[in-house]
């Protein structure tokens, strides 16, 4: 079975769910809005430059979840999806997903955003399998700590290889869709890399390497 692998933020949706989640926490009064928003903006700028300290960012982003029950958090998830994610869903992305599904391809999202935020988004997109930064749970409560291989830059390649062994899958004929230069390590090991509404750095690299470029926002 051929894999169709998708980045999530700014690829299948017209925005960054991680950054939007931070804004949502501020709006909901779950964090000190001024200081948290400043940190959220700084980390997002670091990500865009390819200079994100993923460990420091996850410690920051997951701290507001620490000690909260899954039942409580699921209510926040539902409100976040309705208010922040549904408006940035892309019909063309849905069509692309369905094209691969119709071919019989196995669909997988791999994202640097944590799985707490992205699992319900993947569900909305109709994709059951997702690899993101996993969030530790103890006694039904989120600890605020990440666990496992962090799916950022080279970590995406490492985590995907772990998954391939676990699932007895291969990358033969695989597709990978992404907007970000941070995904260059994974794009380089995929037989069919496709650049989607790319950032300037990735657009330049894709042009040099003659990789297909598409838009899902038209």
Shape: globular
Strand content: 15-25%
- How far the N terminus sits from the C terminus, by CA atoms, comes to 30 Å
Query: What's the helix count?
Result: 9
Strand arrangement across the biggest beta sheet: 4-3-2-1-5-6-7
Which segments are poorly predicted (pLDDT under 50) over 5 or more consecutive residues? none
Task: Please tag this protein with its features.
single chain, 218 residues, alpha/beta, Rossmann fold, seven-stranded mixed beta sheet, 9 helices
Q: Topology, please?
A:
Blueprint: E1 3-6, H1 17-27, H2 33-49, H3 54-62, H4 70-85, H5 91-103, E2 106-114, H6 115-125, E3 130-138, E4 141-147, H7 154-167, E5 175-178, H8 184-187, E6 192-196, H9 200-209, E7 213-214
Parallel strand pairs: 1-2, 1-5, 2-3, 5-6, 6-7
Antiparallel strand pairs: 3-4
Q: How would you explain this protein's 3D organization?
A:
The chain is an alpha/beta fold and 218 residues long. It has one domain: 3-Layer(aba) Sandwich (Rossmann fold), CATH 3.40.50. The protein is built from 9 helices and 7 strands. It has a 7-stranded mixed β-sheet with strand order 4-3-2-1-5-6-7, with helices on both faces. α1 packs antiparallel against α2. It is globular, with a radius of gyration of 17 Å. The two termini are 30 Å apart. 36% of the residues are buried.
